[in-house]
Design goal:
15 helices; single chain; Beta Polymerase, domain 2; alpha+beta; 56% helix; five-stranded mixed beta sheet; globular
Length: 328
Amino acid sequence: MVPSSILTQLQDNYEKNTKKNLWLSFQLWQIVQAFSKEDITVLVFKGPVLSAQAYDDISLRFFNDLDLLVHKKAYYKAKGVLNKLGYILNPDQTNSQEKLMLRFSISNTFIHPEHNVQVELHWDLFSNYYYFPVPLKQFWQDVQDVSVNRFKFPSFSNEKLLLFLCFHGSKHYWSRLEWVCSIHNFIENNKIEWEQLERSVKKYNSKKLLYLGLLLAHELFETTLPERIKKAIGAVKSAADKVSASWRNRSFAEKRPALSSWDYFYFNWKLRDGWIHKSRYIISWMFLPTILDREFIKLPFRLSFLYFFVHPIRILVRLIPSGRYRNL
């Protein structure tokens, strides 16, 4: 029996989360409508949209921000719309800093000080150094409208969303069990064109990244999968075992051990299909600048090309024996 005090607390948390999610859904609808009036094409993902797709109930998932994807060329126009709605950059940035974000990052954060709403405005899904094998244009070409209560939002197709969820989880070493829960419920509650999905990952050599997410969901929750998929996902069993071991170590340790950047790199390198893609991942990780390079050394925008030299130096400094397991 669960103590009544715990049940009361859980009920209270559920009601607070429901109210918050409804409020965020309404704020998202206002933003999308404002973008539409300014002819800004936008796709919405994660947040209330994923809650509706995976659980058919936005109260059953916890989220704190709103994620929107726009074309990079529309960033400043989208920023202007957000500003009119009361959203401001967080943290505040100079013009030079904002240009560096556009060049080396994938998103910028805005907050509404009065409504306490945070928006992640994306122009890409994954940083260049991560080497995401599926082109961004594929996500723009394969879209659908998703109903969230009485609102409709443009979002990824079911197949592209499943790809994104699996890739996103692997990028972060599947550090949150909730990501696997979302994949399980999304598959169970939606129609997946498995043949189309298989063709896509085969074309872009990204089968392992997809299969790991599917294998974790199947092993933990007995997710319904086609027989041919069940046979194929066995190829990433060793990676799934590593994720499970990491969950056990981090869940039951008195002090949760932090994964190093080397751990993340090696894990994702192993999930790349073929040596061509493994090599591209190494090159991207080693030589393509990220916004973290600016924290290592601050350069004006006109000298930002020097970050292509700064980045490998920063990586090498962090990989010396005394600092190999620091965050990069």
